[in-house]
Specification:
Largest sheet: 3 strands, mixed
Low-confidence stretches: none
Mean pLDDT: 94
Number of strands: 3
Helix content: 55-70%
Number of helices: 19
Strand order of the largest sheet: 1-3-2
Shape: globular
Strand content: under 5%
Radius of gyration: 22 Å
């Protein structure tokens, strides 16, 4: 590991040396989690959950080693640290709070519960049976309520959970954000629904496709995006797409394949690549430290959503891979126009991961409201299916016909992640700001002719810093502040052209 350039303080160097033990354990835990989602046989869940539960408490004990804790406390009083050294102290202080406040028994039981729940959720989703998953989901929400109590909060217990995914994020901030964007998005959606698209998509875009050809297309896209694809980066299949990074030399993503609509697989692959790239382009000096890769979920989701929306849905990208798309769907009728129109079609749908750029945020508002109400004690898990369906009807005018397209569609709750969802919308809006800074996209002066410029810009302005800066500080470093109006303007201008209003 290279540390001489940015890590020079003797106390910090001692901290980093000990931290390698924690990194190594997290590396092994990460592989076990990845295998759980990809290749582990279902009956292995019991032993895997037990093993991961015990490993999580071992990590807590390693972290709470009195000499290591003493070094962290000592580092908090040191002046003249580099930005990276300050970040190490900041991130370890956050982790110290977590491990000091949560009982080891709770951590072990929570880990065991979520690993079992993931497998049960997978079965429940396949069977469209919320009742099968409900007992586990009840325990997960109850455990998150306990976690909030252990961690502490000022206004809402949901604040403590949001903070786990985005440092300093609060319920009030998310509420104000959604309040600012809700009516503009409703008005835009209304205009779109009452307009006719300027271009018409061919039905074959959404039809069946050759899964082998689609797999080859995904590989080709990732090779185009990342020349070392297959060397330090790979793609697999899972029930729900995700990204995990063990190091810069081993980052993995997954996608999925359905009977129809190749766009689901393609855009999921590109979305996850955005996450992977953040870790792949983190500075070498940060490897095996607490600030390697991105920790801010809003920044992370701004990367994935940027690649999905500004690259994957762009005309230049579609033109680049049109012949491969034609092979996948066995249709020479596909054109750049028809695929572009389809990829950017706005229509209320049941699934968040398939949602267009306009309706996507109503899916997130729904989840945010549900999580907040459950955690604050105003909603019971047993009522989630009915509440979910009612909110879908209210926001998008549609109702799920089964549980897998409704309350069971996301993997997040089965993994214990309560408080994650708001970062998707916040990240999406931030992604539009990165595009605005780069001057790339359908309404900008620089066409998306290839990934080279984009990757270099993102590395120099975001990725190389890893977790050195908080979201607010990273924006300041780039001469920016979070501004939802940028994305609202982009959506208005883009879709007024597509829908001719």
């Amino acid at each position: 590991m290279k540390t001489s350039k940015v890590f020079t303080n003797p106390t910090i160097l001692k901290i980093l040396d000990y931290y390698k033990n924690l990194w190594a354990l997290s590396y092994a835990i990460g592989i076990a989690h990845w295998d759980l989602e990809t290749y582990m046989p279902p009956k292995g869940v019991g032993a895997r959950g037990e093993a991961l539960g015990r490993l999580s408490t071992i990590r807590q004990k390693l972290f709470l080693n009195k000499d290591f804790v003493s070094l962290i406390h000592k580092s908090q009083k040191i002046n003249n640290l580099t930005d990276e050294e300050k970040a190490v102290v900041r991130m370890l202080t956050r982790s110290l709070k977590f491990y000091e406040k949560l009982p080891s028994k709770f951590i072990e039981e929570f880990e065991n519960l979520t690993n079992k729940s993931t497998v049960v959720w997978r079965e429940a989703k396949a069977k469209n049976d919320f009742k099968l998953f409900k007992p586990y989901l009840t325990k997960i929400f109850n455990s998150n309520c306990k976690m909030a109590d252990y961690l502490g909060y000022v206004n809402s217990p949901y604040d403590a959970l949001l903070d786990q995914y985005e440092e300093g994020l609060t319920t009030k901030y998310v509420e104000n954000f959604f309040l600012e964007i809700k009516n503009p998005l409703k008005n835009l959606l209304s205009k779109i629904m009452n307009a006719k698209p300027a271009r018409i998509a061919t039905q074959s875009v959404a039809g069946g496709y050759d899964k082998q050809k689609m797999s080859e297309l995904n590989d080709k896209i990732l090779k185009y995006f990342w020349g070392e694809y297959g060397q330090n980066f790979r793609l697999d299949t899972s029930t729900h797409p995700f990204t995990t990074s063990f190091s810069k030399s081993d980052t993995r993503i997954t996608t999925w394949y359905h009977d129809r609509d190749f766009a689901r697989s393609l855009l999921a692959t590109i979305h996850e690549f955005g996450h992977a790239l953040y870790d792949l382009q983190s500075a070498d000096e940060l490897e095996m430290t607490s600030i390697a890769g991105g920790s801010s979920l809003i920044i992370h989701e701004s990367q994935s959503r940027f690649w999905e929306n500004f690259m994957g849905r762009s005309e230049s990208f579609i033109d680049k891979f049109l012949s491969d798309m034609q092979l996948a769907v066995h249709s020479s009728q596909l054109t750049v126009d028809s695929v572009y129109t389809y990829f950017n079609k706005v229509s209320p749908g049941l699934l968040r991961v398939e949602a267009d750029e306009v309706t996507y945020h109503f899916h997130i508002m729904l989840r945010f409201e549900i999580e907040k109400e459950v955690i604050e004690g105003r909603l019971e898990v047993r009522d989630l299916r009915e509440i979910w369906n009612a909110k879908m009807k209210d926001y998008l005018g549609i109702t799920p016909e089964n549980d897998s397209e409704g309350v069971l569609q996301d993997i997040h709750w089965s993994g214990g992640s309560v408080g994650y969802f708001p970062t998707y919308s916040l990240g999406t809006f931030l992604g539009a700001q990165w595009a605005d800074q780069m001057k790339v996209g359908p309404l900008q002066t620089r066409p998306l002719e290839g990934p080279t410029f984009v990757k270099l810009w993102l590395r120099n302005h975001i990725h190389k810093f890893g977790s050195t800066y908080t979201l607010v500080d990273l924006l300041k470093k780039n001469g920016m502040k979070f501004d939802p109006k940028v994305n609202l303007k982009y959506l208005q201008e883009k879709y007024s052209k597509i829908y001719n209003f």
